[in-house]
Amino acid sequence: MSILLKNALLMCDVRSEPKLSDLLVEDGKIAGIGNFTEAAVDEVHDMSGKLVMPGFVNAHTHAAMALMRGSAEDMRLQEWLLKKIFPIEERLTPEDVYYGTMMAQLEMARKGVVAYVDMYFHCDAVVQAALDFGMKALITRGLTDHDGDNGRLKQNIEYFERWNGKQGLISIGFGPHAPYSCSLSYIDQIARVALELGAPITMHLFESPEEDYSLKEILKTQLRECKVIFAHCVHIPEKDIELLSSENFFVAHNPTSNLKLGNGVAPIQKMIEKNVQVCLGTDGAASNNTLDVWHEMRLAALLQKASDPRNISIHQALNMAIEQGAKAVGLTPGKIEIDGDADLIVVDLNKPWYVPLDRIKNHIVHSANSLDVFATMIKGRWVYYDGEYPTVDTEYIFEKCEEAIRRLTGTTS
Prior knowledge:
By secondary structure, this protein is of the alpha/beta class.
């Protein structure tokens, strides 16, 4: 399958300036950048007045929680979890998780996300939803041992053996939930398994002010040797920030969720200054309430600029949203390059907030929004295009989600 994008304003990576160019995609890969004729290609799309750029990466979410959007408001984290979220999750079926994940992917594709990191359960359903949609995902089973492991780690290993690498879309990792729900010995056990399999890990860390544990002690386990995406890190002691500067570690910053649950603002400027690799996540739609990485990018920059306008440059904001996320997930290149997967978005520039065009990267961060996304392509396949989702039946997904929400909450959505 060959697709030619003609007359695009092309931004190949977060460092380069956009330039007019055609882009040729063949068999899911970037095959050419330059000027091409329309002969001998399967599809031609005129992208005049549109920007083609790498897609965004959501480095931390719980996709199926799209079913709980708006169901738990105005609460602190532990109250939110114990009184609202956990009781609903106890009733979730694999089918619920499948359609909740599908709903999340509809939103993410519409808003320019090409890959995401998920921590949840019923992971066969999560994987199947990603494959059916055509979305890239690093999928982890949430793991806890406060009530015993109950076979969770064995289940996560089985997910890895069954799904890792599937269709070039799926990576399976391990998801120790948090230091307050996992003992040090359990974290060490998970890390040893992940190292043996060559799998990444994601874990919540210092999300709320109530969390009190030692990062130094945690990193005495084999976790220190793993590739880890630490979500939140809002209340990490300043003296410990440097401990996260390993080339194997990433921090997934979730500014909206952190604010909405009253957890505060993560010190990401200090992290960046100490060479910590920071990417962006949305958390689940139950705590955000959107899955909009573009919005997170702007908010992340503005929150740090509150104390010093020199904090978080345009380049740093774009880098967190795209290339650092891609590096963390490991499934998508985070740039448009020859022989790389064609994971890209098309942005409609025919809006007042893109004038003048010679400042387009500034506008992307501080003026524009995700609803300017005209199309999203993953591995050379359109998953969203001008209001349509070519790979799925959206009406049926809406219907199944409405049914699930009524059953789970006793209300209409």
